[in-house]
Design goal:
Helix content is about 35%, strand content about 25%. With about 240 residues, it is of the alpha+beta class. The chain is elongated, with a radius of gyration of 25 Å.
Amino acid sequence: MISLDEAVTARLESHGQRFEVLVDPDAALAIKRDDFDGELEDVIAAEDVFEDASRGDRPPENMLEEVFDTTDPMAIIPEVIKRGEIQITADQRREMQEQKHKQLIQRITRNAVNPQMDDAPHPPERIESALEETDFRVDPMEPVEAQVDDALDALRPVIPIRFDEVTVAVQVPADYAGSAQAQIRQFGDLEREEWQSDGSWVGVLTFPAGLQNDFYDVVNEHTSGEAETRIIKDEDDISTRG
């Protein structure tokens, strides 16, 4: 369950009766779109249906039966959300918008590079500053992933940007190979790996290009800066970065 502070009210008015439930806002939107695949009990603040959630008043059971053909709250809650309206206060809307703004910046930073700077990652501060120069505003009632393309369209006239992946080969010295390779291989999709005769480990990973700096931090942290890395652009074009 979630806390009351995290919940919004979904309200349905039918048969002269009001029905309200308390639910996580993102989950409510997913349920409304028939796109929710989680556990209902994890995204509600109460396993109950209210006439007035703020007062804790409950509708008569005979009205539940008449409108929903059941008195089971866990069966009724999704119906209230799907058929009703999601009520959010100005404070809740502002908080949701701020949260999704941060998530959007993180999503873009994770995947975006600057094609005019040898595909170097954009710092999140640059993404946020550029987005503020545009007319784009995050919609608190839409999933972040559905807003990424519009945000990119707004950003392109302001900064050079594109989404990309990077493939990096890394060689870890034998002294660090045992523990370091376990950490490094988790960072992205491991394309191939090989243990060398000297005990060193070589791995080739693909991951979102915006995470390059984070990747090198992980490699350096677990190898005391002694690993060698190469960005693989194609079979004939390999540049080195340590």
